[in-house]
Structure formats: structure tokens, C-alpha cells
Amino acid sequence: MNPKKERYCRASGGRFRGQARSLPRHLRGLCCLLILLPALAFAEEFQTPEITAAALVARQGTSEAPLVVDVRPNGEYKTGHVAGAVNIPFDKVEKHLDELREAENGIVLYCTMGKRTRQAEQTLLDHGIPNVYHLEGGLGAWRQGGYPINTGWGP
Fold it and tell me: What CATH architecture is 50-150?
């Protein structure tokens, strides 16, 4: 071994130049939590049946098409949403109950991680709105399936 490298190795606690340092013990747990956080967001149970992205695509454009509702805030909706979805942010769902009751073929709710979908579904269930579904995997599953994404304000 090169004497310079050998001295460097001893001085750096056995690490070679260019090798990454390991995280301090107190930060390892935090990093694990941050990695697992998205999975934990879906851990809470939904109260409505799920519909897969493929099943939703098959129903869109037919006489059985459900009302697809993006429950994310307006800015997130504008940057990319399920083709054909309308935007009703989860915290404004209660103001739109009358129009949501008119959805003859059911309502499919989605967001990014599921938390806002669960909040919106709870509001609809509390007000007796029937035929509510949630998009399995949210917008991420829709994107992963390669299904159409629209941007801007229109469905």
C-alpha cells in the first residue's frame, strides 16, 4: 500500500480517500424514518373500496365513468393531475356536497400519499354520500402506469 494512503487511512479512522463517511448514530434513525414515512402515510386504513388505475381508465369515457376528484390544493392540481379529474381540495369538500351527491356513477378520490384522500372520504361518508372509492396508490400509481396526466386548470 502507498505510504501516503496508509497514513491517510490511519488518520481518517480507516477510510480511504473518496469513501463516504457513515452517519452519526443519532441521525441514522432519523434517516430511516424519513425513508419509511411515505409508506407509513398509506398505513392508515381507507374506509372506501379501492379502484386501480387500470380499472379507472377502463371506466373513463364510458357511460359508467365516475367523477374523479383530485383533493390536493389548487397549486398541486395545476402542476399535474389525472386526465378528466376535477379539483376540490380536501378542506373544501364540505362546500361541494350538493354537486358531489349528483355523481351518478360514484366518486373516485385521490391525492399524492393518501392522507388527504382519507380526510375527504371521511367528510363524504359523514354526510352519507354513496359510492365513494379511492384510487389505489394515488397519483403515483397513475403516473407509474403511464396514464394521461393533464396540467393547468381544466379536467
Answer: 3-Layer(aba) Sandwich (3.40)
